[in-house]
Amino acid sequence: MRTLAESHPEYLDDEVESGLALVRGHATGRSWLAAPPYREGRDLACVLPTTLAPEAVSRLVDFVESRGLAYGLADPQRPTALRVHLGRTRTDDDLGRLVGLLDVLLKENR
């Protein structure tokens, strides 16, 4: 992402917005999601506002990170939200698996 930002900054927003669209597509209709995922300013991650209490989000993040399943989900500024990186390292399959994992952990029936 840094290379893209430095060499072709005009493409960075398109790349990030594409990632946001993928996250929105995977997260639509989840009962644990309080509002659609959004991007704050020019951040390279999106915010997933949840219906969970701060303690539940903290336990969820600790569980996922301690098992090496995902990292960087915590958002210190938003204790009831999760963060998802929108860079090139994520794929559509990765996002689908992450949202599916959250469904299982949060007992979302799909």
Summarize the structure in words.
47% of the residues lie in helices and 11% in strands. It has helices at 2-7, 9-27, 54-66, 92-105; strands spanning 38-39, 45-49, 81-85. The N and C termini lie far apart (34 Å). The model has no long low-confidence stretch (mean pLDDT 86). A three-stranded antiparallel beta sheet has the order 1-2-3.
The topology string of helices and strands comes to HHEEHEH
Count of helical regions: 4
How can the largest sheet be summarized?
3 strands, antiparallel
Mean pLDDT over all positions: 86
Main sheet strand line-up: 1-2-3
Spatial shape: globular
Class per helix and strand makeup: mainly alpha
Terminal CA distance:
34 Å
Work out the helicity level.
40-55%
Beta strands, count = 3
Estimate the strand proportion.
Answer: 5-15%
> What is Rg?
14 Å
Give the low-confidence spans. Answer: none
Summarize the topology.
Blueprint: H1 2-7, H2 9-27, E1 38-39, E2 45-49, H3 54-66, E3 81-85, H4 92-105
Antiparallel strand pairs: 1-2, 2-3
Helix pairs in contact: 2-4
Summarize the structure.
The protein is mainly alpha-helical and 110 residues long. The protein has helices at residues 2-7, 9-27, 54-66, 92-105; strands spanning 38-39, 45-49, 81-85. The chain is globular.
Which labels suit this protein?
mainly alpha, three-stranded antiparallel sheet, 3 strands
